[in-house]
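Appendix B, example 12.
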Amino acid sequence: MILPIVAYGEPVLRKVGKDITKEYPKLEELITNMWETMYNAHGVGLAAPQIGLPIRLFLVDTTPFSDDEDLSKEDQEALEGFKKVFINAKIEGETGNEWDFNEGCLSIPDIREDVRRKPEITISYLDENFKPHTETYDGLLARVIQHEYDHIEGILFTDKLSSLKKRLLKSRLDKISKGKISIDYKMRFPNIKKGR
């Protein structure tokens, strides 16, 4: 089932997610619905807060990215077929010199900006079978994971922009929160009365 993606301004996007257990209600169904929702919106990652749930769950499928001809062969290969569920994730470390890359977000449609992030991360998490993993990623793979991880920490990519850039984007962000935007996927807006 395709779920509405919550838009910028929804309070749930600012909450630090809570850990979940295997007993979380209908978890398998939730994960299936999240994949369907993400693919429907042409995303490469989706976090539970983006569908209104303040829990530590996100998923990533970077395969669509791997077709980008501007990427190095190495990046294309790393992104091809990478599909994972991250539960109760914790970034254990970030290393390297920060680099800029243009990011967007399904909760903040039609806004893309360069964001600085460290190039390498080590992350511990549970997969959908609650098997523990600790893995290191770099490059674009690390960046997609960092972006989704930020969501379960209540952080949006716009938080990482300069104060000048934030001021320049304010009116566009306000329009998104009021639903004054044209998108081709289901969204829920904070400043619109139910029933519209």
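The two ends are 20 Å apart (CA to CA). The longest strand covers residues 83-95.
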